[in-house]
Structure formats: structure tokens, C-alpha cells
Amino acid sequence: VKEFLMPYEELLFLAGARELNEIDKSNVKKVKDDQKDVLIEALLNKLRSDSGNDVTFIVGKEKKRIGANKYILSAASTHFEGMFCRGFSEAEKNEIEINDIQPDAFQVLIQWLYGQSFEDAINSVLRNEEAFTTEQECYETYYLNFLVHLLTVTDIYNIEQLKNIIENAIISSCINIHNVCEILEWSKNCEASQLSNYCINFIRSNKEIIVEQRLEYCAITTNEKEIIEESEMIDLMLFDEGQ
């Protein structure tokens, strides 16, 4: 019965209307109305099993072999679309050598292009935090360096959405007074404008503390190269203050 007729329930019964009995729907199986998750998992399974791959990237000095499918990469990235679908020599190659890129970072890029979430993709290659047991090894530094490598890959392959995700990850958990100047330089090299702007604002808001910390480090270190680098960074910050 339509809502506007509800006040006339008794009149409707007198006119011969019948009341329907509702059936319990709680045990009816609920299903998704799209195939997105199923498709992504199927694609990732094929990637892992090397089934359907028609190109192998030989990556980094380690010469790690990473397989993929040209059509899937072309659909997910304008860079790979240009590489494989517009008459470039790579379209005919079964193996493509890529130098100066960390293999694990490239692996994350491929898995993300196949539809895997950023978190799942990086967790599949990152070392376990519990493996860092000495003062010489720091998980936070390792994690930041990995993100910077990955940021470089997104810049090379012009993957803006993934670049934005990585910028957000660095901003949310990695920046402090000890590394903000270095991260700013890295962000400029990768044209990561969101990260650059955040670092600039962080430095301007905390310049006195950052300069003090770097002067203290210059006073205790005996590494001449580090002293020069720290001094140059301090000069840059003080120069910016005078602008």
C-alpha cells in the first residue's frame, strides 16, 4: 500500500483489499553487483603465476625478471600505452631491460597497475619490521628510502595517482626535523609538488629548531663531507629566511 493510503487502511479492507504476508529475507544470499574485486584478484593471480604474461622486464643491477602483460599495462598507464601501442620498438620485444631502478619498487608499480591496493603492494615486498634488530639498521629509514625509490619510479613512468599516494604516505608518517631538508630535495627531483610544498611549510614553521639541530650535528661529526652538506643546507635555509 502506498504511504498516502495508510490512513485509510480500514476503508481499503471494506473495499476488498487484502494484506500481503511479508517473507523473511534475512537468509537471502547477498552478492556484489560488480566484478571488480573478482577481476583484480584474477589478474593478480595470473601475474603471480606468470600466466598470460608476454613481456619480461629485467630490472636493476640485480637483473631481476618481472613479468607482465602488455595489454593490461597499456590499459592502466598512458606511459605503457605509448610504449606498447604506438609503434615503439618495445612493442615487439619480449624482454625489456630497465637500469637504475630498484626491482622491488618496480614490482610494486606493476602490482598497483594490476589493481592491487598500495598497502598490499608494498607489504608484499617490504622487509619485516621485526628483522631490524640493531642500531645500524633502522626500519623507518629503510621504509622512507623505499618510498623515495618508488616516488622516483612514478615520476619516470608518469603515474600521477600513485605519486600522490606516496606523497601522502611520506607526509603522514616520515617527515621530521632530521630529514625534512633531504626529503625536500628528493621531492624536487621527482617533481612531487604536494610533498615539496609541505616540506617548505614545515621548514618555515620549525626553522629555528632545524637549524639548531643541524649546527649541533656539525659540531660533533668528523666526516668532512657531512659537515659540508649540513653547512650548505643551513645556508639555504638562512638564505630563504632573508627573502
UniProtKB/TrEMBL annotation:
Gene3D superfamilies to which the protein is assigned, alphabetical: Potassium Channel Kv1.1, Chain A
Q: Which domain of life is it from?
A: Eukaryota
| Pfam families, sorted | BTB
Q: Which residues form the BTB domain?
A: 53-114
InterPro entries to which the protein is assigned, alphabetical: BTB/POZ_dom, SKP1/BTB/POZ_sf
The protein here is known as 5494_t:CDS:1
